[in-house]
Amino acid sequence: MMKSFIRKPSVLMAGLFVGLLGATSVASAQSLQIKQWAASCAACHGTDGYSEGGMASLAGQNKDAMVKKMIDYKNGKVPGATIMHQLSKGYTDEQIEKISAYFAALPAEKPVAKRK
Ligand code: HEC
Questions:
Q1: What is the pLDDT along the chain (116 residues), one digit of tens a residue?
Q2: 101 Cβ closer than 6 Å to some ligand 1 atom
C-alpha cells in the first residue's frame, strides 16, 4: 500500500502542492481577518491607525506597549478609560496581540502618496 504510493512521485508532488496552497490561503485569510479587526479602530484612531489629530495614532506604536495598554483597559487597570475600557473587552488576548502586531508593523509616519 505505502510502497505503491511512493512509486508515484507525481501523486506526492500534487499532494505537496495542494498542501502548500492550503497553507497560503489560511495565512492570507488570517491576515484579512486581522485587517478587519484593525479596521474597526480606524473610526476613532484614523485610517490604518494614522490619527488626524486629537487622538493617539496606533500605527508604529510599540507592540508590547500597545498590548499592555489594551490588557490594562480590559482589566480596568487604567483609571478614567472611557470607550477603550468597553471596547477592549470585545477582544481576546490573542486578538489584541495580533491587532497590536499589525499596527506596530506599520511605519509611524503616514506614507505620503507620491505625485506624478
Ligand atoms: C469609539 C472610538 C474608539 C475606537 C473604535 C477605538 N478607540 Fe482606542 N481610544 C479611544 C479613545 C477616546 C482613547 C483615549 C481615551 C481612553 O483611554 O479612553 C483611546 C485610546 C487608545 C489607546 C491608548 C493610546 C495611547 O497611546 O495611550 C490604544 C492603544 C487604543 N486606543 C487602541 C485601540 C484599538 C487597538 C482599537 C481597535 C480594536 C481602538 N483603540 C478603537 C477611542 C476609540
A1: 555 555 666 766 777 776 777 777 777 888 899 999 999 999 999 999 999 989 999 999 999 999 999 999 999 998 766 899 999 999 999 999 999 999 999 999 988 877 76
A2: no
Q: Which residues contact 37 (CB under 8 A, 6 or more apart)?
A: 91, 95, 98, 99, 102
Quick check: CB of 92 below 6 Å from ligand 1?
Answer: no
Give, using CA atoms, the residue closest to atom 17 of ligand 1.
Answer: 81
Distance CA 36, CA 56 (A): 19
In whole angstroms, what is the distance from residue 114 CA to residue 45 CA? 24
C-beta neighbour count of 84 within 10 angstroms: 17
Dihedral (CA of 83, 84, 86, 87) sign: positive
Residue nearest ligand 1's atom 41 by CA: 41
